[in-house]
Structures are given as C-alpha cells and as structure tokens.
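FIELD: query
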Amino acid sequence: MSASTKNVIRKKGRPPTGTDPMLAGRVPAEMIEAVTDWAKANGITRSEAIRRLIARGLEVEQAD
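FIELD: result
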C-alpha cells in the first residue's frame, strides 16, 4: 500500500499551541483594559503582557 492511501487517524480539535500549562481566572473588565493598553504600548500580545506583569509582581514580592 502506498503512503498516500494509508488511513491516518487525526485528533479532532485545535492543535496544541504551547507546552506550558494554561492558567485561567476571572479578572475585572477595567483590569483587562489596562493590561491590553499596557500591551499595546509595549508592542506585545496581551498574553505576553500578563506573563511579564506577573513576573514583575513576583520580583517585587521577593525583594521585600
């Protein structure tokens, strides 16, 4: 049987985009807007902005 006629079983759904675990939580609309504005001002995605802001918060916490 040639390679083009083999039946390939594919998983349904969106393919994975990353290897890190996902974190979800509820955030007030005003905070989302502020993070979005900060991300745009820094030329990054909102996801990257959230990661950077969390890292900054953790650095400040460790400095205390």
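FIELD: remark
Helices lie at 29-41, 46-63.
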